[in-house]
């Protein structure tokens, strides 16, 4: 049996991609959120509003988490040319998103505990001033959400010459910036809790329904927990290279089956090295001679494959 034909192909696509606009907007959101956090916490103490105080501390944890996102962007850029990172620094951003999601889960737990405490020990609230600050907080959250909205995924599909038409990414979409999504979810969680705080304060003022405040807090904690676990699942999957269920994996098998009838896939490993970029190790067993270059040329139609290694052994 001849030695395997091993070679690698590196696409001109850069593994290291740090979105400057996303980093800049996330940094702005951190500053705005931190400023509003101070206003809400001070207002909560001054007005004896547990709803505002809880929302302010909730916002402080999000400012910290989004600070992690900014740090992840900075580290990814700083080490972009560091040769120790075999496939670039993109996963620093994913690690930032994962860490941010962990903090989001902690926030959800704290919100639940505080809401249950408030259910049994209600506080007298200065409703008019508290509602004004809560509305201001909601406006700030909506502004931050608008700043971070630009990187959401959009539909993507392309036809391939050998008769396949697949969309790439989860559910046929481009993969998006997980680090940015983490920051975006923190802002949306803040907006949701601000809405719930406003509803609770207005209900308490108009109808004397003091129980609305803790109930809304419980609802908000469930929503935040759901977002957190969804982000943990998405970012954890990337960090653990659990990508073998992606459409590109089946497309690689299709190329081998359709273009190389005398070859069979003996080994296949695919993992993500960028937002829409994959590396691949493909092992083939062939009954007639074929070259790794031929295989790479056929796989090149899938532009998301930016680093391909082909190993060919005779049957």
From TrEMBL:
Keywords: Ion transport, Membrane, Transmembrane, Transmembrane helix, Transport, Zinc, Zinc transport. Its main location: membrane. It is a multi-pass membrane protein. InterPro entries: Cation_efflux, Cation_efflux_TM, Cation_efflux_TMD_sf, Msc2-like. The chain crosses the membrane at residues 29-47, 59-76, 88-110, 130-148, 183-203, 209-229. Residues 30-240 form the Cation efflux protein transmembrane domain. GO terms for biological process: intracellular zinc ion homeostasis. One of its GO terms (cellular component) is membrane. GO terms for molecular function: zinc ion transmembrane transporter activity. It is found in: Membrane. It holds the Pfam family Cation_efflux. The keyword Transmembrane helix applies. It comes from the Bacteria. This is Cation transporter.
């Amino acid at each position: 049996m001849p030695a395997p034909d091993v070679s690698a192909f590196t696409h001109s696509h850069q593994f290291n991609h740090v979105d400057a606009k996303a980093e800049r907007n996330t940094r702005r959101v951190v500053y705005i959120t931190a400023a509003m956090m101070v206003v809400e916490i001070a207002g909560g103490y001054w007005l004896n509003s547990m709803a505002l105080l809880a929302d302010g501390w909730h916002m402080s944890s999000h400012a910290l988490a989004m600070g992690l996102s900014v740090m992840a962007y900075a580290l990814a850029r700083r080490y972009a040319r560091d040769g120790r990172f075999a496939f670039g620094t993109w996963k620093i951003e994913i690690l930032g998103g994962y860490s941010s999601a962990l903090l989001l889960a902690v926030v959800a737990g704290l919100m639940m505990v505080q809401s249950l405490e408030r259910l049994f020990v209600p506080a007298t609230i200065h409703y008019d001033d508290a509602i004004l600050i809560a509305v201001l907080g909601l406006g700030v959250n909506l502004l931050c959400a608008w700043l971070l909205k630009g990187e959401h995924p959009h539909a993507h599909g392309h036809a391939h010459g050998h008769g396949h038409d697949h969309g790439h990414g989860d559910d046929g979409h481009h993969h998006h910036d997980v680090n940015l999504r983490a920051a975006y979810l923190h802002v949306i969680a803040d907006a949701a809790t601000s809405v719930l705080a406003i509803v609770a304060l207005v209900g308490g003022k108009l109808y004397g329904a003091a129980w609305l405040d803790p109930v809304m807090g419980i609802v908000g904690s469930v929503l935040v927990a759901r977002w957190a676990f969804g982000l943990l699942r998405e970012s954890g999957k990337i960090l653990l290279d659990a990508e073998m269920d992606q459409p590109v994996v089946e497309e690689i098998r299709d190329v081998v089956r359709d273009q190389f009838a005398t070859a069979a896939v003996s080994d296949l490993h695919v993992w993500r090295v960028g937002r829409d970029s994959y590396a691949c190790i493909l092992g083939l067993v062939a009954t007639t001679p074929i070259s790794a270059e031929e295989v790479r040329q056929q796989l090149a139609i899938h532009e998301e494959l930016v680093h391909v290694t082909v190993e060919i052994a005779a049957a």
